[in-house]
Amino acid sequence: MKTLVFTPKRITKIPIEAEIISPPRISGKSLEDVKEILVYQGNKRHRLTDFFTIEGKVAENPSKVRIVIDDDIPHVKYVGAEMNTGEILIRGDAGMHTGSQMAGGKITIQGNVTDWAGAEMSGGLLKIEGNAGHQLGSAYRGSSEGMTGGVIIVDGKAGSEAAGFMRRGMLVIGEDTGPFTGVHMNGGEIFVFGKTGIRAGAQARGNGGFIACLGGIEEVLPTYRYDTTYSPVMMKLYLKEMAEKLGIKKASKFKDTRFIRYRGDLAVGGNSEILVAKG
User: Fold this and answer.
1) CB 148 within 8 A of CB 127
2) Which of 30, 70, 217, 246 is a good FRET partner for 268, with 20 to 30 A between their CA atoms?
3) What values do phi and psi take at 221, rounded to 5?
4) In the Cβ-directed half-sphere of 68, how many Cα atoms lie within 13 Å?
5) 24-29 contacts: CB < 8 A, separation 24 or more?
6) Exposure pattern of 69-97 as b/e (b: 16+ CB <10 Å)?
7) pLDDT tens-place values along the chain, 279 residues long
8) 28: closest CA among 2, 68, 5, 62?
């Protein structure tokens, strides 16, 4: 693994569109070539080196490329967009669309991230150690598919419409969520260790997708019907895997929890599940 370090020179008022900051897009280039790559700021093009000090080495194989961004970049969009291998570490806050449509590899954000992180993600791991904005792992407007694979882990809170139009994959949120978590979902697994916001699972259809509300829920929509109260074996397996493989320590505290299961959204003939931890 070879590491390339980007150190931001300043935070700009006009955002920078830098989908080029991704292991597959820079692998095989020389350090000087990377510095000369053009990115858009508004309707103007600039060299990467106008915004970053860039040091280190670039591997030929994209799976061996590790990019470290050594400060906050809330003004930089699309970092890691469409990446399918390699690793990115952001030592601070990240901007919109970070990890959007990623298909593999790993992105770690040690601060907060704004809207559309992991949008339409199909693979890989997106780890956010702070809070996430709105539309986390969601579908873009006009699209019918959000997450179709991969794992997103948020240690803090998430905004509205997390995992909108989700089809597959896993979303784990350590604290509270905003409204419409899992809106239009049609599969996949959502775990919320804080309180799940209002209108969760609105217009969900799928058979097999669920939202596990481990920290309670503000409301269950009236279009969800009570089904049973039980201790699902599959939930114990999920929580064990989260604790042992994903490093989510609080998951082990819920291994013997009983859940109240609701099915819906009946307004659209759905058969998704909302599982609310009892007590």
Assistant:
1) no
2) 217
3) -55, 145
4) 10
5) 24/62, 24/65, 24/82, 24/83, 24/84, 24/85, 24/86, 25/83, 26/58, 26/65, 26/67, 27/58, 27/59, 27/60, 27/61, 27/62, 27/64, 27/65, 27/86, 28/58, 28/60, 28/62, 29/58
6) bbbbbbbbbbbbbbbbbbbbbbbbbbbbb
7) 999 999 999 999 999 999 999 999 999 999 999 999 999 999 999 999 999 999 999 999 999 999 999 999 999 999 999 999 999 999 999 999 999 999 999 999 999 999 999 999 999 999 999 999 999 999 999 999 999 999 999 999 999 999 999 999 999 999 999 999 999 999 999 999 999 999 999 999 987 799 999 999 999 999 999 999 999 999 999 999 899 888 898 898 888 899 999 999 999 999 999 999 997
8) 62
In whole angstroms, what is the distance from residue 250 CA to residue 222 CA? 30
CA distances from 200 to 31, 154, 197, 203 (A): 47, 18, 6, 9
| Among 28, 6, 16, CA closest to 89 | 6
Task: Write the single-letter amino acid at 212.
Answer: A
d(CA 1, CA 221): 48
Residue with tokens 């601060």: 111
C-alpha distances out from residue 108 to 88, 105, 114, 116, Å: 6, 10, 14, 15
Comparing C-alpha atoms, which of 123, 127, 188 is closest to residue 152? 127
- Distance of alpha carbon 159 from alpha carbon 40, whole angstroms: 28
Evaluate whether 137 touches 116 at the Cβ level (below 8 Å).
Answer: no
Residue whose pair of structure tokens reads 């559309």 in the numeric block: 116
Query: What residue spans define the domains of the chain?
Result: 115-277
